[in-house]
Structure formats: C-alpha cells, structure tokens
Amino acid sequence: MKNNDEIEIVGLTFRAIHAPGHTRGSLIFSVSNEIIISGDVLFAGSIGRTDLPGGSAKDMENTLRKKILPLADELRVLPGHGPETTIGRERAYNPYLKNAMRG
To answer: Which residues belong to any copy of the Metallo-beta-lactamase domain (predicted)?
Structure first.
C-alpha cells in the first residue's frame, strides 16, 4: 500500500499514511477515523528507533510534526509494541512529541 490508499475489511476503512522515520517505507493506518495503528512509529511514551538501516531521525521528526501531531486527541493508538494509548496522552507525556511541538 502507499500513502492514502484505502481498504475496507469487515466494515472498517483502513487508510494508509506514509510515516517515514523508523524506516523509509513506514506506514501507519487510520481505522475509520477512530483508531491509529502506529506500528513502530509511535509507542506509549516513546517512538520507534531511527538508528537502524533505513531509519532517519529527521524523517521521524517530520512525521511526528506533520502526521501525528495534527491528529485528534481522542484517537486511540495501537502501537506495534506495548500498551494502547491516545494521541492526547502522547501529546501531553511523550517527550518526543513534546520536542516535535517545540520545533
């Protein structure tokens, strides 16, 4: 899939959002505008590593600023690892999102 591609599964619409940083091809998925499946881009209190081959701290900061921060606070986030969170909780407590807000 590529940016803005959509697929419907069991009545839910999954929209792909290109979110480079952890890897060049990282995608997150918006599910019916209620949930974000963030994979290894955003975790509760952290973000995915950018120091591995294909990762980029600059791309991750742009993804956080342009793709994650504009999302609604009430959106549930289902990361690739760890507990569920919300955009609002991460905006308030995630040091990487706080840094992206300042930048």
So the answer is: 5-81
